[in-house]
Structure formats: C-alpha cells, structure tokens
Give the backbone structure.
Amino acid sequence: MQLAKEVKYLIHKEVLLEWRSKYTINGILLYVVSTIFTCYLSFVSLGDKLAWNALFWIIILFASINGVSKSFLQETKGQQLYNYILASPAAILISKTVYNIVLMLVLTTIALGFYTMVFDTFTPPDLLLYYVAVVMGSISFSTVFTMVSAIASKAGNGGMLMAILSFPIIIPVLILLIKLAKNAVDGLPWENSYDEIGMLLLVNVLTVATSLLLFPYLWRD
Amino acid sequence: MNKIWWKILGSMLVIYTAIAGLLLGVPRLPIINESIRNLYFHVPMWFAMIVLFSISVFYSIKSLSTKSETDDLKAVESVNAGIIFGLLGLVTGAIWAKYTWGQFWSFDPKQNFAAISVLLYFAYLILRNAIDEEQKRAKISAIYNIFAFPMMVVLLFVLPRLKDSLHPGNGGNPGFNSYDLDSRMRMVFYPACLGWIIIGYWVYTIRFRIRSIENNQQHN
C-alpha cells in the first residue's frame, strides 16, 4: 500500500513539473510534427504501404528515444538525491515508467493522426488494429527506454550512450511491432495478430520484471 | 594432470571433429549437399557463444551482490571470448550462405538477429569504456548485461521462429530433425559441440588470467 501511495505521489509530481514548463511535451510534439512534415516534403508521395508503415515507426522510434530519455538524463544530482531520500527505488521506476507510457500514448496518438492526415494515400483499412500496434509500441518503448535511460544517466554520458545501448535491445520489439502494424495495413483478420500481441506483452512483462529487480542496485550509489 | 585433462579432451575432440567432419560420410540432401558438413563447424560456435554469455551473466549477477572485482573481470572476459565465437559463427554462416544461397549476406532473419545480438555485446563493451571509475563500471555494466541477456534469448531463439527464414530447420527446410535421423552425423556433431564449448571456456580462463595479472600490476 505504501508503494502505491508513493507511486501516485511521484506520478503527480512528474505531471505537475511537466505541466509547469510544458517543455518535453511541446518539444517532442514539435519534433514529431516537423519530422513528418520534412518527410512529406522530401517524399511527396510514398511508393507503397510498406514504406508508409516503416516511415511511421522510424519517426515514432526517434521521437520516443528523445522523449523518454529525458526522464532520468534531465534530472540533476540534487533531484535524484531528493527522490532517493523520499521514495523506494521500485516506486521511482514504476512512476517514471507509467508517466512515460502516458506521455508516449498522447504523443503517438497525435502523431498517428497527423501522419494519416499528411500521407492519406495508404491509411490502413483496419485503423483500430493499427492503433493497438501504436499503443503496444508506446508501452514497449517506454518500459525499455526508461530503464536504459537510467543506466545511461548513471554512466554519466548522455545522448550517444543512450542510442548505442537502446538500439540493440529495441530492435526485436520494433520488428514485432512493424509486423503487427503490417497486419493492420494489409487488413488481415485479428486472429493473425494474436501471436505478435502476445509476444509483445511477454517481452514487456520480462522487461519490467528485470528492470524492477535491477533498478535498486543501479539507484544506490 | 588433474587440471589439464579437460583441455586435452577439448583439443582431442576438436581435432577429431575437424578430421571426421571432413572425411566421414554424410547423407545426401537436396540443395545443401556436401555443405551439410558446415553443421559441425558453424552450429558449435553458437553453442559456445551461448555458454560463454551465460557464464558472463552468472558472474554479473554474482558481482552485483559480492562487489568483488574478480567477478567483474570474469564477466567481461567471458563476453570477450563469447564475441569471438559469435563473429566466427557469423563468418562460417556467411561462407556457407555464399555457396548455398548465393550471397554472403542475404538479410535472412537468422543472420540479422545473430548480428544484432553480437551488437548488443559490443554495446556492453562500449558502455564499460565510457565509465572510468572501476566500482561504478562493474555495477552499471553488470546491470546492462543482465538486462540485455533476456533480449538476446528472444532475438536468437524466439523471433526467428516467427519469421520466414531460409535457414535449415526453418520453414520446411531440412534441419536438425532430419540430421538426427542419421547416426553418422550425430557421431561428429555432439563431440564438436562439446569440444568447442570446452575450447571456448579455455580461451576465457586464459583471458581472465592475463587480465587479472595486468590488473594486479596496475594496482601495485
């Protein structure tokens, strides 16, 4: 019960901090929109629906790396110490992950809307399944990148390390996501996608479990 | 004699498989033909790599609780030895692919996933180089190592089964099961796996000893 209270408090703190500055959400939003617009200007029209799908995931991948890596890299030493005194490591990790999931859900939903508006030729016939893939993507990117950004921030060498460490880990997830999204683009029935959805859930449970086990060791200096 | 028997065993097994693997009879299967012999030289590399990476994860977990420098050195040296076997596995696979599929690298899912899992361990080594303070390095790299290991298992054993691959054993191509029916191949394949795992472990112990001597010299 103590944990739930701490998590609730920490999430409230994160949202409040974000609401005051609105830096991350506006920054990433502008990032996504301008990337999509740049892609639109350079491609004008995409050749086929496979390219449509791949381009969307690449944009989301980079946006989420930038967005989620903020969570630990941005904090100062003092803030970390303050959190360390106040809350248990598990509560900190869970609150950051949940906050990132919510943030990514908002961002990817807006991005998907804008993307289908700009590149409207290949809008998937099964938009609901595509949205399920996007939701799964937001969750998976958040769980993986939160832990990796914690590792990168402790190593004290921000941006580049974040990219190197997270890419090999995220590629298997990304492949599953693109396959799931491709099913939606091709308009296959839902039964064909249960395998991928199950695998993604499994990978997420695995990631969260190992993160929860390892984070206390990482947190303690 | 007590300590070196396994080294002799490993060397004898690898010499035996090198000779027997090239000379003994093999079943004639369509497409792969004589290149089936690569089974003796390609697959054991992956087994050795997996064993070495598992040793590394074991010592990473241990070093988190004991905080001893020895455990950290063991973890990094087994990764170093494992990467050698991973690269050898990629190379032997690529040479085989040149003669069977026509290209060294044809973006087969198995090739890609194997390459990514080797990248994962290169990232581990770069992470180590990025941190100067020894205890901090031991702790953070151990955490990344443990975090990455389940992903490598997913990459190498789960994902390739979801994708269409030309690799033997996938998508209706002849694979392990049809080889296993042939006892002549089993006579060479199992010793080859055991032999290469032992050689890999040997490489790891030598590297670890060199590293710990260097480490002692630095401290004194």
User: Anything to note?
Assistant: The longest helix of chain A spans residues 89-118.
